Amino acid sequence: MRYDVNLSILFTELPLLARAEAARAAGFTAVEYWWPFETASPADREVEAFVRSVADAGMTLASLNFFAGDMAAGDRGLISWIGREAELADSVAIAVGIAERLGCRTFNALYGNRLPGVDPAAQDEHALSTLDEVAARVAGIGARLVLEPLSAVEAYPLRTAADAFAVIDKVGRDNLALLLDVYHLAVNGDDAAAVIAGRAAGIGHVQLADAPGRHEPGTGSLDIEGYLTGLAEAGYEGYVGLEYVPAGASAESFGWLRGRR
């Protein structure tokens, strides 16, 4: 397995621009982030500072989220959000530019919450059209989109792998795949092992955290070893992102990886 560390949830003891170097010191060669800016259209100097922080640490950018709205307030993406197309388009353009410089070929396109007073069917039709358009856009650099089921946000409609695959199959793009986050699936009662066994070819990215707690593997009850073995046996060759809240200091949370890399 190739592991990367998500620097939007790990090494938060440090400023964002110092985290890639900390990940390098911990032995990683690849990182991933949620959208690393406060707005969909950050200033050029902000983008440049972010790129330099990753490049100067010698890191590959394994995965990057598009702008997802106000995450702290509960927003979870703009793909299905009618009326915010310009913000999404701006962040896609910026993300593609970052990716071309840092080697990223996976983008997480969070679907978006159900909106009060908006017909869910209209949101879903909008999402299908948006995903088709954005998938075509990122295909120009040989990249893929991944669609992620989430937990803990009642208004987010993609809760299981089957929910995400239903959208993926409707869009029908070769570069649209599942983001298999074993924590979110487990919390929602889904069976990650069955997904790996049955639809491994449709998995475009993997993220790990144990449950309950969303801490590092070994702190909960999930069969992380079994998931990793299943992925290897199925021929998964992508990155496995470490997207957990460390139980202690970030740099001390990687003991479970000993002998794996």
TrEMBL record:
Domain Xylose isomerase-like TIM barrel, chain residue ranges per copy: 21-258
Family: Belongs to the hyi family.
Name used for this protein in its record: TIM barrel protein
One Pfam entry name: AP_endonuc_2
Lineage, uppermost ranks: Bacteria, Bacillati, Actinomycetota, Actinomycetes, Pseudonocardiales
Residues of the signal peptide: none
Keyword 4Fe-4S: no
Family annotation (PANTHER family): HYDROXYPYRUVATE ISOMERASE-RELATED, ISOMERASE
